[in-house]
Structure formats: structure tokens, C-alpha cells
Specification:
Layout: E1 4-7, E2 10-12, E3 18-24, E4 32-38, E5 45-51, E6 57-59, E7 67-72, E8 77-82, E9 91-97, E10 100-101, E11 105-109
Parallel strand pairs: 2-11
Antiparallel strand pairs: 1-3, 3-8, 4-5, 4-9, 5-6, 7-8, 9-10, 9-11
Length: about 110
């Protein structure tokens, strides 16, 4: 099965950085992993995707140039490096593949 566990969230000041991790602790490997986020009172939105076998990535426009998604296949972990964070990046961040979702990790950007 596939089981995602996210970590790395926290409180950071505007302009700061965080790195989120998404580890698949299940026995079934997946090729495509996505990061989504849901801000308070807003719909969940797709942030970034990665194809773990090729390293091909994509990003929503609001995070291009600031966020980087990467994979360490030996650790079965996908990362989301977030730089130059802004208050409107505040959200619960989830990783997912297909219908499998992690529990989320909260990122709060505030001074």
C-alpha cells in the first residue's frame, strides 16, 4: 500500500525558508507525487508535482521561482523546498498520489 507522512512545517517569518518532506512508508512505490495546500477558508490548490522516475516537475504560478520539488528515491521521500515565504503561503500542505493523501503539515508565515 501507499502511506504518506508529511513533516517539516512550522512557523516562519516572511522571507524565510522551510523544507517539507513527504515519505511513503508503504510497500507500493508511486511514480507521480503532488504537493497541495489548503489555506484557512479556501479550497485546496495544487502547488507542485514531480515524476519520480524522470525528475520532471511543474509548479503553480504563485510559487514558481520560490519553491522547488525534488525526490530522493533511495529514501522514498519527496521534498518541497520553500524559499522567500509570504504570509499568503500559510496553509496546511499535503502530499498525494492518486487517491492517497497524507495527513498534512501546517506552514504559518507570520512576523
Amino acid at each position: 500500500q501507499v502511506q504518506f507522512v508529511e513533516s517539516g512545517g512550522g512557523l516562519v517569518q516572511p522571507g524565510g525558508s522551510l523544507r517539507l518532506s513527504c515519505t511513503n512508508s508503504g510497500s507500493l512505490k508511486v511514480a507521480n507525487v503532488a504537493w497541495h495546500r489548503q489555506a484557512p477558508g479556501k479550497q485546496r490548490e495544487l502547488v507542485a508535482t514531480i515524476i519520480r522516475t524522470t525528475g520532471v516537475t511543474s509548479y503553480t504560478d504563485s510559487v514558481k521561482g520560490r519553491f522547488t520539488v525534488s525526490t530522493d528515491n533511495a529514501k522514498n521521500t519527496v521534498y518541497l523546498q520553500m524559499n522567500d515565504l509570504r504570509p499568503d503561503d500559510t496553509a496546511v500542505y499535503y502530499c498525494n498520489s492518486g487517491r492517497i493523501w497524507g495527513q498534512g503539515t501546517l506552514v504559518t508565515v507570520s512576523s
